[in-house]
Amino acid sequence: MTIIASDSYPLHLLGWKAFQDLCVSVAEECLRRPVQNFLPSRDAGRDGAFVGRWEGEDPASGESTIQCKFTSKPNVNLTLSQLTDELAKATVLATKGLASDYVILTNHPITGASEIAIKAAFESAGVGRCRIFGYEFIVRQIRTSPRLRMMAPRLYGLGDLSDLLDERAYAQAKLILSAMGDDLQRLVVTDAHRRSVRAISEHNLVLLLGAPAAGKSTIGASLAIGAADIWQCATIRATSPEDIQRHLNPDVKQFFWVDDAWGNTQYQKQTAEAWNKIFPLMQGAMHRGTRFLITSRDYIWNAAKRDLKIQALPILGRSQVIIDVQELQLHEKAQILYNHLKLGDQPKAFLSKVKPHLPELAGLPDFLPETARRLGARFFAGDLVPAESMLLHFFRFPEAFLLDTISNLAADCRAAIALIFMNGGKVRSPVALDELEAAASAFGTSAGEVRGQIEALNGSLLLLAKDEAGNYWSFKHPTVGDAFAKYVSASPELVEVYLRGAKPDSIVNEVVCAGISVTGAPVTVSDSLHSLLAERIKGIQDYKLISFLSYRSNRAFTLMMINMRPDIMDRLRVFVPPVKDDSDATFLATLHNQELLPEELRLNFVRHVRRMAIEDADASFLEESSLRDVLTEDEEREILREVDQQLMPNLSAMISKLSDEWDSDYPPDNHFDSFEHSINLFADALRDSNDHVKELEQARREIQIAIGRMNERFDPPTPTSAPTSSSASPAARVLNIFRDIDE
């Protein structure tokens, strides 16, 4: 990479606390000085000192102090007079043996004369050796060290990226940043962020979990830019397992970023089967150095993992790669709040009035970074009375405030939001006239007025971003779509407008029929709108339609769709193990529950369950009550009798078969988990008629022998590492973080 000299990099915009964090990274990564603990200063932590110890041939080996000196004013040279307090403290540190080496890290520029005077003064005060690393030194480290940049990702949001990255990485980073607006400039490196870097570095995968507005996408973006920078990975924003399969290149290290992998607002159960099919490919790609960043709302992941074959991607079962991003420490929340207010557009008078209440807001258990962003924006909080009760209400009920904001917008503004909502959260720019007119007609306005409001809402509720295909409009934050969905669902008239204007793919993922409950589903369709709903979705692919009918449809609508699309019943003739993960089996169980399943298809299903139980040791029908209910008691009893006679005495043959099917890209320890689980289920179901303890014990011994042999052939991938700060400083007291918020 060619390093381009530049005399301007806005370190003064970082803020004093973020600059201290940067100094920790510079000390550890560039000076190779492991930082151990923080020494609070008398000036309430605005400047900070860190004590470290290192060994080696350096004459300053031993105890050292690293002093951070920050200024929020650009181009102000550092002078000895600005260090009077630190000089007095250095004398005390020297008498305690803590200043064999005294390092000053500052974003002030330093003249040669000032450097000589400062060094002389501190060494006269008793420190062993004084060294000063100023603005020019720190900027040089930023420009030459991608490891440092990944440890302090806010640096990507400041200055000119073309100075930092090569041409390919620069293009990647610009696309990622376009989808963030100015959020990266406000990023706080939290413990969750550091653990995410560690996970993606050591295991090639990280799963970021959190409630809406908890900060998943911000961490994701910083990791994606870091991947382009430090690992030279091309970043691919995948939206589905099919996207991953389409773009996987076995010969190239890649970085896949998948937001809301198993659903945006509610769990999309139909995606589980596709994910289970792609897991083996992901495992192989990770073995060759490809990395995966996945995000999900926590409640959706909890629902999805019941249906996912984690043993096919065993790293997903390890706690080290599953990061709960909303587990924020108090000082981290305070710094997030500080950044959003300091870099927002609220007037100083507002900041002065809220200043006394900020520590309490940071301490709220339901604090969310997105709410902090809204507090710093006049668009959302310009009319908010900055009294304690109102501020607490603003943070405790963010969705209600956002819904009020949307409800009080002019019709053309609401139509602009509807445009994005009706197109599944993303619409290409420039927006086609027919898409504009569909949204405009819903709110009695014109296409031209809607187009103008899209531009006006950019950066507040909407965002103009760019990907490889060009410009597109989306919501500034996913919670905008959540709030608009509630606004739509409150009006039957708007539900009809939504059904007429939304894309069929969006409809089947967002609506439910009356009487059906799906967590997070934003739109409920009454029976009176069945004809319109059927007309809009009748042409979608059969696998999407049966997913909708399986989970979101009531009996009346299912019957209507069977009459309109009789071809979907042809899917109910062949099933694959494990049957509980077969989406066609789930559809069949729904039809049975709704008393719409023909007897001929039910008997065919029973035959498949019997065959899979004996030939594949598939006991999953025993776990899923809806599937088990399809069988009569006599049919279930007969299947278990055949399992007892044909499968259980021949477990050794099944273990041998599974051993032959093992792929060496996978760690073998979990290869037999599903099999063991199934034979245990069968043994429990057969306990009253036959005791299979001996067969199970023998099977466990044979499995351990097989795993031992497989381990001899297993070549685990060697992880490549990126840095993580092992000794980030504790925060200064929360109150002091907000000291200069209104300056």
Sheet/helix structural class? alpha/beta
Percent in helix: 40-55%
Strand content: 5-15%
Largest sheet, described in full?
5 strands, mixed
Question: How would you sum up the global shape?
Answer: globular
Number of helical elements:
35
Gyration radius, in Å: 30 Å
Mean pLDDT: 83
Low-pLDDT runs of 5+ residues are 1-7, 39-48, 725-732
**What is the strand arrangement across the widest sheet?**
1-2-3-4-5
Total number of strands: 15
Between the first and last Cα atoms, what is the distance in angstroms?
Answer: 39 Å
Question: How would you describe this protein?
Answer:
- The chain has 743 residues and is an alpha/beta fold.
- It is built from 35 helices and 15 strands.
- The chain has a 5-stranded mixed β-sheet with strand order 1-2-3-4-5, with helices on both faces. Strands 7-8-9-6-10 form a 5-stranded parallel β-sheet, with helices on both faces. The protein has a 3-stranded antiparallel β-sheet with strand order 11-13-12.
- Helix 3 (112-124) links the parallel strand 4 (101-106) and strand 5.
- The radius of gyration is 30 Å and the shape is globular.
Secondary-structure map:
Elements: H1 16-29, E1 35-39, E2 48-54, E3 62-69, H2 84-95, E4 101-106, H3 112-124, E5 130-133, H4 135-144, H5 146-151, H6 167-178, H7 191-203, E6 205-209, H8 216-231, E7 234-238, H9 241-247, E8 254-258, H10 271-287, E9 291-296, H11 298-304, E10 322-324, H12 330-342, H13 348-354, H14 358-362, H15 369-375, H16 378-381, H17 388-396, H18 398-407, H19 411-422, E11 426-428, H20 433-442, H21 447-456, E12 462-467, E13 470-475, H22 478-489, H23 492-501, H24 504-510, E14 511-513, E15 523-525, H25 530-537, H26 542-551, H27 555-564, H28 583-593, H29 599-616, H30 625-628, H31 633-647, H32 651-661, H33 673-685, H34 693-713, H35 734-737
Parallel strand pairs: 3-4, 4-5, 6-9, 6-10, 7-8, 8-9, 14-15
Antiparallel strand pairs: 1-2, 2-3, 11-13, 12-13
